[in-house]
Amino acid sequence: MRNNVRRLAYILLVGLAAVCVYLALIPVYINHITKSGAALADPRIAAGENRIQRGAILDRHGAVLARSVPAENGYQREYPLGGAAAHIVGYYSNKYGAAGLEKSMARVLLGLEGGSKIINLRNRILGRPGVGNDITLTVDAGLQQYAAKLLAGKKGAVVVLDPATGEVLALASSPAFDPLQPAKYIDDAEAPLLNRALQGAYPPGSIFKIITAAAVLADLPGMAGDTIKCTGKLTVNGFTLHDNAVHGPVDFGEAFTKSCNVAFGRYGLALGAGEFLKQVTAFGIGKSIDFELPVYAGNITPAGEMDGPTLASSAIGQGEVLVTPLHAALLAGAVANDGVIMQPYLVAGYRGRGGSSSRRHPEEWRRAMTPAVAAALREQMINVVRQGTGRAAALPGVTVAGKTGSAENPHGKSHAWFVGFAPAEEPRVAVAVLLENAGSGGSAAAPLAREIIRKALQ
C-alpha cells in the first residue's frame, strides 16, 4: 500500500514538473515567434496573446496612447489619439499583425521581457490571464496632436526633440492612418502607412549647409572671412549649379543667411571630398541609429565616386544626398547642444504589475563638431531667422535659431524644410519640419515650425 502511495506521489510530481516546464516554455516560444514577426500567423499563439492584457502605452505625463480593453475571447486594443500617434504606436491586429511600438516592444507589452517572471508563472499555473508591462514614452501627447493637426491635409513630417537629452517630444507623419483599420491603407497611393519622419528619404537642400558650414569653420577658417562673388550660377566641369538669386559679393555669414548656393558650392570644392565627407560622417549621415522604430540611415555619395559636380551639389544638400526628418532634427540638435548629438529615443521606460520597472538614461551618440564651431553656427542660425530666409519662424520674446531648405526633387515642386531650435540661449527644443512639394522652406515650413516651437515652449 505504501509503495502504491509513493508511486502515485512520484507520478504526480513528475506530472506537475512537466506542466511547469510546459508553462515556462510557452513565453520562450512566444518570444521566439514575436521576434520573427510571425506570431499572429499561428492561431494558437494569437489566441494566447489575446488572453494577455497587453500593457498600455503612455505619454510622458501618463496620457494613454494605447491600451487593452476587454473583448470577446480576451482583449482588444484601443487607441485614444487615433491617427495622431499612429506612426509611433502602430497597430496590433489578429489578421494583419503589428507595426510600430506594438511590434518592436511586443515582448515588453506582453510581459515576456522586463516583468516579474514569478508573477507571470503563477498566473499561468492558476489559469489567470497574463498582464503585460506599461510603457512610458518621451512623447508629449498634446504636442503630438498639435503637430498632427498642423500637418493635416499635407504630405510631410514633424520631429521635435530635446537636444540636451535626445528625448523625442513629438514625431508626426502625414497622411496618417486609423490604427484600428490598417488594411484600408495598404494599397493607398498616398502611402499613409509610411512613417515619413523615420523612413522618408528626402534630399535635404539647404539645411545640409549646416554640415558644410561646420566643415568650413573647422578646416578652412580663413575662407570664412573671404568674399565670394555670386553671379547666380556656378559651373563645374561643364555642370551648372544654379542659385535662387544673384547675391553679388557675399562673405560666409551672408552666404549662410541668404542660403547662397554658389558660395556653398565653392566651399564644398575647396574642402575636397575627403574633408567634406569626414564632416558628413561626424553628423552621422549614412550611419544607422539605434532607435525603437526602423530608421533610414541616409545616403551620401562615396568619396571614390564624388567628382566636382557631385561634390558641389552635395555641399548644398542636392545630388545623391538623402536624409530623414529625424536626422534633420539631429542636425539642429547638434548645434543647440554644443556640437554633441544625443542618442534619440522614444521609450522612457516601463513599469510592470509586480513593481518592476526600467528607466532609460540619455546617452551621447556622436560629437559632430567642437563647441566653438557650434557656437559660431548658432549665431549664423539666429541671423537666418532674424534677417534671412527663416524670418517666418520668428517668435516674439524668444530667440529662434534655424535654417531653411528648398530641396529640388524629381517629383514636382521643391520639398520645403525648416530645422531649428529655441530658445537659442538655452535650447529646450529642436525641430524639423518637412513638407513634400510645398516649395520654399522659408514660406511653407518656417511658419509651421514657429507654431510648433511656440506650443512646445508653453
From TrEMBL:
One of its GO terms (biological process) is cell wall organization. Residues 156-453 form the Penicillin-binding protein transpeptidase domain. The chain crosses the membrane at residues 7-30. It comes from the Bacteria. Keywords: Membrane, Transferase, Transmembrane, Transmembrane helix. This is Peptidoglycan glycosyltransferase. Residues 54-134 form the Penicillin binding protein A dimerisation domain. GO terms for cellular component: plasma membrane. One of its GO terms (molecular function) is transferase activity. Gene3D superfamilies: DD-peptidase/beta-lactamase superfamily, Penicillin-binding protein 2a (Domain 2). InterPro entries: Beta-lactam/transpept, Beta-lactam/transpept-like, PBP_dimer_sf, PBPA_dimer, PCN-bd_Tpept.
